[in-house]
Amino acid sequence: MPKTKTRPWDPAEHLADAEDMAAYLEAALEDGDPRVVAAALGDIARAKGMTQVARDSGLGRESLYKALSPDGNPELATLLKVIAALGLQLRAAPKVV
To answer: Which domain does 61 fall in, by range?
Structure first.
């Protein structure tokens, strides 16, 4: 029986438009883990093109990769710049209990 070749799943390959990206970020925010939010922003940035996001945000590409990794710890200012560069908004809503 031949072996099936697999490769790691990359969420960036499935984020086709702004609605997908917003829904993905919203789900990460609902999780509440800062590492998940940073990683989701990293996935979205890779889907849009990290070089372009770096240009649009005024941040270095290498520092973005580091900050938006699951182990990164970006400052709020960095997150806000990246969100704006991605064409997304960060909103607050009352928590539904």
So the answer is: 17-85
- Which structure tokens are listed for 17? 């438009």
Q: What is the pLDDT of residues 83-97, one digit of tens each?
A: 999 999 888 888 887
What domain count does the chain have? 1
CB-based contact 44:86 (threshold 8 Å): yes
Instruction: Tell me whether residue 47 is in a domain.
Output: yes
Q: Is residue 46 part of a domain?
A: yes
48 domain residue, yes or no: yes
User: Per the structure block, which two tokens stand in for 38?
Assistant: 């940073």
Model pLDDT for residues 25-65, shown as the tens digit of each residue = 999 999 888 889 889 999 999 999 999 999 999 999 999 98
32 Ramachandran zone, left/alpha/beta (phi>0; psi -120 to 50): left
Closest of 32, 60, 29, 30 to residue 45, by C-alpha? 60
For position 15, what pLDDT does the model report?
A: 94
